[in-house]
Amino acid sequence: IAKSNVEICTSVTFTPNSSVFATGYDSGFIRLWNVESKKELLVLKGHKEKITSLLFTPDGKLLISGSLDRRIIIWDAYLGHIIKIIRGYWGAVTSLAINKTGTMLASATADNKIRLWNIKKSWKKTHELKHHVNTITKIAFSPTANVLASASWDHKIILWKVANGKKIGELKGHFGPISDLAYSSDGRVIVTGSSDGTVKVWDAEKAKEISVIASVDSSISSVAYHPVRRIVAAGSHDKTVRIWDAKRNTLINTI
User: Fold this and answer.
1) Which residue among 24, 26, 118, 243 sits deepest, i.e. has the most Cβ atoms within 10 Å of its Cβ?
2) Which CATH number fits domain 1-88: 3.40.1260.20, 2.60.40.1930, 2.60.40.10, 2.40.10.480?
3) Regarding the domain with residue range 102-255, which homologous superfamily does it belong to in the CATH classification?
4) Any idea of the CA torsion for 245, 97, 113, 172, to the nearest 10 degrees?
5) Model confidence over 94-145: pLDDT tens digits?
6) Which one, of 162, 116, 126, lies nearest residue 143 by Cα?
């Protein structure tokens, strides 16, 4: 077990080949660990406040971090050096996402905006997306289409065309702030969780609700879609993880 005894871990991510994982902390520190040996490889010091989001580029060479200090830092994942710092936000970084090809980074901030950055063009900002009216909690690229999905405390999921930054769809149906979203591996389905206690499944192409697979007496804090099977997992504030068969809308297990 990888431990840091004096810090609260706030974010975790793996390299694409799963040989290394990174952990971010409320102190602003980031630690890299070897999966097999469980040994600490690097300690990255650059942020001044809590880490809110971590991700590796698809080739595993770069680690990207977002923080409450309103900065995004791009790190050399092998040496731990800072390659670039993106500043200038009017709010804390709440979520980061990178597309499948590793050419585009999306960042969401507490000023209710999403910014798109072209990685291949020296991290040039290409678009600023403005339609949410409250804090954006999660963003995710479709694994198969040139589309970005964003979830917010404004009870909405918005779909954006990455090429021009235009809004192309809106998913409505939650009656509380949306805490998390995830795509299925084929990009056809989006699953969302909300403080209204529901987990919803949506048709990503038609921007329509397919089903409500859960309605519990507790806020949903996180959701995940199985990479192969039609299975959804959700964590909630009642300290429970529930796993559902998304095809049959049946509960499989409670942890």
Assistant:
1) 24
2) 2.40.10.480
3) YVTN repeat-like/Quinoprotein amine dehydrogenase (2.130.10.10)
4) -20
5) 999 999 999 999 999 999 999 999 999 999 999 999 999 999 999 999 998 8
6) 162
